[in-house]
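User: My instructor asked us to take a sequence, write out its structure as tokens, and then describe one feature of it. I'm not sure where to start. Here is the sequence I was given:
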Amino acid sequence: MTFSIKYQPLFKVNIWHNYFLDKGTVSFNSMSDGEKLKRIESYDVNSVFSILPTFETHKLLKGYNLMLKLTNSGFVVLTKMVNDQITPFVSLEDDLNFTFIVQIKDPLFYNYTDLKMENSNKLYFLCNRKPALEPVDFPLLKKEGNNAKLDDTYILSAENQKKELSVLQTVEKNNLLAMVRVFMKGENNNLSVITNQGKLKDPFQVFEIHIDNRKTTWRYIFRTDQEVKGGDNVKLEGTSPRILITKNEKPLTQSGFISVELGGIELPNPSIHIVKPDTSNIKYYSEIYM
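Assistant: Let's start with the prediction itself. The structure tokens for your sequence are:
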């Protein structure tokens, strides 16, 4: 009997960041299919993150005849198949799991990302099974099509974070944002990677992580006094006529222009280089010097 060896996707993880996908005030989800495709074509999550298997997972992947492939939106794990196209070449046990680390490459990441800066030393954990010792409502890794955003509910308890970090190499802990762990059998069948018979699901399982872009109050700092009228999109921040702020928070996006008018003139949009948190009122400010 001859066998035809092929690789098929076992599961995939996409990481979407709205700073790169939204366009000004136009959200990615509200775009047409054609517009979405254009945004995805220019999207590259690898410019923001290093996504790697842990050293232990790297060994497991080899041992189970699995292959990791990075994509512009995340990564996919492929399995060697036998000729029936649905059976992995090496059986995958229900409790078998693989862990991937997400490390921040962009030093400005927290400026344009809607995550609390004060949580930068904490570990976000995304898994298709609830971690032990965490609350019952600890969120699970989401399937494709779920638009739930990454937030501080995904942060591990101090005890679990210490446990997870203890098995990582020093280089794996550098700029670590999150760990993604995928079990072959998830918390429920809907989150499992394989069927009860150990076969591949059809279609294969796709998980996704959504990261929202930061919304900030835009602060314009002028060299001369300004006159503000009711129809303008800005107002005095305090008593100084040289410091104006937007009346509402505005999203930070890589592309697109958001109109902010003062006296019929459009003011510039801010860069992501100057974002200042104000912990007293839980707000963030983008500063533009005029």
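For the description part of your assignment, you could build on this observation: The chain has two domains: 6-211, 216-289. Try explaining in your own words what that tells you about the chain.
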